[in-house]
Amino acid sequence: RAESAPKGLRHTGRVQGDRALPAYPKCHTLHLYHVQTIVPNHVVTKSHFWYFVSQLKKMNISSRVIVSYGQVFKKYPTWIKNFGTCLCHDSPMALTTCTK
C-alpha cells in the first residue's frame, strides 16, 4: 500500500508515459505525454496521468508504460502565492462578473 500524505498535504508530481514499443518497431520514436498534477501521493499521480491520457489517445492497458515520474519542488517554498481570476461578460441585459 502506498504511503498517504497527511490530510491537506499535497505535492506536485510530474509523469511522462507512452505506449510500449513492439518488438520490431517501424518507428523508433516515442510520443511522450506529460501530466503535472497536485495530489497526495505518487499512486494518485499515475492514476490521474492515465485518466487524462485516455481522454486523448486510445491505449490498451497492457501496452502502457510510465517512462518517468518525479516530484516537482517549488523554487521558493516559503513564498505564499495567492492569486485570483476575474471574468467579465457584457451581455445585452447586464454586466456579469465572475471572480474566483
UniProtKB/TrEMBL annotation:
GO MF annotation terms: structural constituent of ribosome
Biological process, per Gene Ontology: translation
Assigned GO CC terms: ribosome
Descriptive protein name: Uncharacterized protein
Taxonomic source organism: Lynx pardinus (Iberian lynx)
